[in-house]
Amino acid sequence: MKGQQIRDFIRRAPFTPFDIKTSDGRVYTVDHPEFISVTRDYRLVVYQTPEDDRTVWIDTAQIVALEQANRPTAA
Predict the structure, then answer these.
(1) Could you tell me the pLDDT band of residue 73, with boundaries at 50, 70 and 90?
(2) What is the pLDDT of residue 71?
(3) Phi-psi region of 40 (alpha: psi -120 to 50; beta: other; left: phi over 0)
(4) Cβ pair 54, 48 in contact under 8 A
């Protein structure tokens, strides 16, 4: 289940940045666990953009890949 996998990525200690890729080709960069959350039923991911303070709701059915990033965690 993708929602559970994302929740597992969020809870890693220490946190490791990751990317969410969706079926329409978008990539959401998660550099800090406070930028993202998952609904209780795991059907939606709530992503907060760090640049412009925008909130994006992502249907987990549209997620095609989760990739661990090789970059430092945001401060």
Answers:
(1) low
(2) 75
(3) alpha
(4) yes
Q: How far is the first Cα of the chain from the last one, in angstroms, to the nearest whole number? A: 29
Q: Which residue shows structure tokens 């930028």?
A: 35
User: 14 has which bridge partners?
Assistant: none
Encoded tokens for 59: 């249907």
Q: Provide CB contacts within 8 A for 16, sequence distance 6+.
A: 9, 68, 69, 73
For residue 17, say if its preceding peptide bond is cis, omega within 30 degrees of 0.
Answer: no
Q: Which run of H or E residues covers position 64?
A: strand 63-68
d(Cα 18, Cα 31) in Å, to the nearest integer?
7
